[in-house]
């Protein structure tokens, strides 16, 4: 049993998969943040365009 636990402690095969998973999670979070920022800016831009068109047409 002790030999099995020693072998298990030295086994690093799963560590790479965990590291890649963490990297992918960070990339995903960065993408979500970028999309949210882009969406906020886009909404503000189209709101401004809409108000200027409404003012220009006198409606």
UniProtKB/TrEMBL annotation:
Pfam families: Flp_Fap
InterPro entries per record: Flp_Fap
Parts of the chain that traverse the membrane: 20-39
Keywords for this protein: Membrane, Transmembrane, Transmembrane helix
The name this protein goes by in its record: Flp family type IVb pilin
Organism for this UniProt entry: Qipengyuania marisflavi
Lineage: Bacteria, Pseudomonadati, Pseudomonadota, Alphaproteobacteria, Sphingomonadales
